[in-house]
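Reopening closed ticket. The problem is back. First fold of the pair:
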Amino acid sequence: MPAALNYCLFDEIRQSILDKKNGELNEAHDQGFQVCLFKTLDLLVDSKLKEEDIVSLLQKHFDLRRSEVENLIRTAKNRS
């Protein structure tokens, strides 16, 4: 097998492995983000804060749209 072809095949395999690992890392990050968000949300809903303050905090620190935050709060209240 010519050296250039061998290198090309090695490079494709290497890239495939890197892509798979990156996908796994992204998935782990997303799962961690969701766990953090849900724990924070439960804590805030159980607190004495007004709902408007909770909405502002979650929008600011988790970069969520107002409608997303409102849906999450409603779901958290139903869980507790």
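Second fold of the pair, where the issue appears:
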Amino acid sequence: MTSIETRQARSAPSTLSSRLTAFTHAVDRPVRRFSAAQLAGVPAPLLAILAILAVNFGLILLDGRPPSADDAEQLSQATGWALGYSGVQPPVHTWIVMSLQSLFGEGLTAVLAARWFVVSAFFVALAGLCWALGLKGDALGAGLFGAFLLPQIGWEAQRTFSHSLSALFFSVLFVALLVCATRTRRLSLWAGLGVVAAFALLSKYNTALLIGCAFVAFASLSDARRMMPRFGPVAFMAMAVLILAAPVSWLLDRLQTLDDSAKKFAFVEGEPLWTAALGLGNYMLAIAAYVAPLMLVALLGLLYLEGRGGVSVAFAAFRTSTGIRLILRTMLLVLSIGLVLILASGATAVETYWLHPALVMSAPLVAFALDRADPSGHANRVVIAWGLVAAMVTTLVFLIRSFGVG
């Protein structure tokens, strides 16, 4: 084989690459029509996701499996209204379960319905965040279906979790409102932020990290600071304190039980350098496990761009969007503080779902970047197509499980 033939063989696309290219081109036009469609003003991608979640909920009910650990906990707790449950467990998700018991009874069905309801509400809030960032059409669809390429959202959220789900919903809703606050000077908006922040904290206490970092990021942006009403922080604190006063008082009486969960962190006593390396390695692996499928599909979408100009435009657009800079700075702050806490404490175990506060906004960020890098929308349609495939796979898996398989 000559040197020219060798170079041609090396540059020839692989069979897998050719098939992926053929798939994306085949679905490009239908996906474009799909992402542009609306029904009663509601984007078709959001309606499709809500329909998929509803079908999956029905299949989960048909499955009839014994309750998971999280579900069993909710069954034991959802027997009365309280400011907190089982040691120091926050109350909001259990309140949601109890609110649905009038429709679904006091058994496992109400617990499963609460999960379906909160996951659906999460995607509605995510659509609100995309809208606040100015995403429309293909970019909006990618911001939503991209979440299905995050395994912790697209799969795990439908079959497990309880408190983390409510925290996800209120965290995304909080960030969406804060992004709106970078463009609108309204006192009522800041009062609403206080309400949402309080419910986020009462869903899972670690949302305090996200809320605190978001406000630091907001304060670091001069464009955002100029939009803050004079009594905005007062309205925020007033509403938050009004909601949190009684639950915090309840919690302070039970702080001694916080040590019950310390074993989850797998603290190691010994060589500090080895412990730090183990903690850092597991932290990086958890980040990769959270976002890897989405990032791989986004890179697949970028393969069709000629040159690097589009990518440069995307990064330049990051600097011009106050909302995007707010989210990026919030994510970086949360990840940085998380890393410092792991290294300082000697923790070596990092559960992927602990990264919800830092990485749950990844899909809208990727959609924004692809929208600016490829104004034709093709790159975002690649994300929509593969996100739709991932969503349909979850339906297929739940269908198989409903027959007692797996």
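Update: turned out to be a display glitch only; the data is intact. Residues 81 and 95 are 7 Å apart (CA to CA). Strands lie at 38-39, 42-43. Please close again.
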